[in-house]
Each structure stands twice: as structure tokens, then as C-alpha cells.
Amino acid sequence: MGNVFSTTTPEKPSCNLIKVRGVSGKGKNRVREHGQFWQVVLETDSAACRQGQKAFLVVPVGARWVDSCLEAWWRWVSFTNDPDFVIEKKFDIN
What we know:
Blueprint: E1 17-22, H1 25-34, E2 37-47, E3 53-60, H2 65-71, E4 75-78, E5 85-91
Antiparallel strand pairs: 1-2, 1-5, 2-3, 3-4
């Protein structure tokens, strides 16, 4: 089995934070549980788990990556046509 995260080398994220809106029941639940703002861990132009779409790997703001892995808080969010979320805004906070 290949890399489940992407089929290309991850790029440095073009933004540090995204604001999402839940569109499905699952997406709305995640926003209710963890909020609208998500921290971008990495960006790829071809996420295998998102049918090869360009996507962000995100965790809730303030969550540590290791905690997000253990608690399954991380999410892939496609740039377009995501079944669970719409990206409302991208922030580059440095």
C-alpha cells in the first residue's frame, strides 16, 4: 500500500489557518466539537484520500499534532468540492 496521505511530496502550506463551515452532518458536528478555525499542518496537491484533489491536512486550533492523531481530531479538507466542509477564509499568520 502506498502513502495514504498524498501521492506527491507535501508542500509548505500556503496559509496557517483556515475558517470552515460544515455542510454535511459530519462537518457540522466537527465544527460544533472543535470550532470553525483549523490549523493547517500540511498542504498537498493530490491527497489520495480525497480522490487526488488538492487538500489541507488540519487540526483544531491549539491542538498538538500528536494529540490530534491519538484522538482522531485531524481532518483532510479539500480546496473545492469537499463533502463535509466549505473553506470560508484562509489566513497567513506569521
